[in-house]
Amino acid sequence: MYWTEFLTIAVAHLFAVASPGPDFAVVLRQCVTYGTKAGLWTSIGVATGILLHVSYCILGVAFLLSQSPSFFSAMKFLAALYLLYLGFQSIVESLGSAVTEEVMEDNSSVDPRKALVLGFLTNGLNPKATLFFLALFTVVIRQDTPTSVQIAYGIYLSIATFIWFAMMSKILGHAAVRMWFLRSGAWFERVMGVILILLALQIVFYGS
């Protein structure tokens, strides 16, 4: 009965998750800098962030957010500040770094909790994700759709997000791929820092 609704959600989510954004940038940096394990834990964090968006949409908080421009703006600037912090941190760390195979081995051990929190905050604070899920739960999903079905949608979206970024982590975290990126040395970190800063500015000026 709800297959048409589900397929619409699945296709919309596929295009959304495949488009470059803060989630992809952070997972890419984690994979190249620390390896596949870091990318996978960051992906779990991103997927958990999806559950946050789904939860407040089901509870009706998303509607309240859409009716409170000041609160939404505050969240938007908070997300931008977080990305700015990550961007500048990446640039600062690159100033005294030289990447070698030994460094790659040392970076293979990562704190799963930090990686998970990084992914969760990156996705959870993303105002574009808020707008995406607001659109799904107000335009695509009907009001008479049972809560149990909406929860099932949310679980699917979270799992699908993890699968996508887990596949990306496997590819980007491969030793040969990492070395290809890291041969540029500190410039990779600087470029990633600039990308994160640009994403932050995009959220501030074009995120509404």
TrEMBL record:
The chain crosses the membrane at residues 41-65, 77-96, 116-141, 153-181, 187-207. It is found in: Cell membrane. One of its GO terms (molecular function) is amino acid transmembrane transporter activity. Its main location: membrane. Keywords: Cell membrane, Membrane, Transmembrane, Transmembrane helix. GO terms for cellular component: plasma membrane. It is a multi-pass membrane protein. Pfam families: LysE (PF01810). This is Lysine transporter LysE.
